[in-house]
Design brief:
By secondary structure, this protein is α+β, with helices and mostly antiparallel strands. The chain has three helices and five strands; from the N terminus they run H-E-E-E-E-E-H-H.
């Protein structure tokens, strides 16, 4: 049954969207993702011969899938054009439901404007010192260590 679902999904995806991803889901069904339209369609076995459960839903932010908004049982022996017609109707229902209840979607919520971010202020202005106090302490300790080494080698008692 998976092979038949996979073939049908691949043909259906090519008819519906130019850009799509087809993959297997955990339950043995096949999912078609249209990232550019923010929608998904799945074909899952129903237990009947040559029949599948067709579901459609939205893609949320981050690429996760929202629960199916609409479902229908379809005959897999039907021509792909007929299945595509059913899918388009279901996708239209999903889009209409998304317009009524926007929820979290890729496009954001209509009517809400995004706040413009202010550019970050530079921490240091032109002409300020670039070396912090911690760096000066490290440089001082390195200088003391070099001086102690030089004194013990070249200037210590017994030279």
């Amino acid at each position: 049954m998976y092979a038949q679902l996979r073939e049908t999904a691949a043909e259906l995806a090519g008819v519906l969207w130019r850009e799509h991803t087809v993959y297997r889901e955990r339950g043995g069904g096949v999912v078609i993702r249209g990232e550019h339209v923010g929608r998904w369609i799945s074909l899952a076995p129903t237990g009947g011969k040559d029949r599948a459960l067709l579901r459609a839903g939205r893609l949320l932010d981050g690429g996760t899938t929202a629960p199916a908004r609409t479902e229908a049982v379809v005959d897999l022996t039907a021509p792909v054009a007929e299945l595509a017609t059913v899918c388009r109707r279901m996708l239209a229902e999903v889009a209409a439901a998304a317009d009524l209840d926007p929820g979290p979607s890729r496009a954001g919520r209509p009517g809400k404007e995004r706040k413009e971010r202010k550019p970050k202020k530079a921490r240091r202005t032109a002409g300020s010192r670039h070396t912090g106090a911690g760096s000066w302490v490290v440089l001082l300790l390195v200088g003391v260590a070099v001086a102690a080494w030089a004194y013990s080698v070249f200037g210590g008692p017994g030279y």
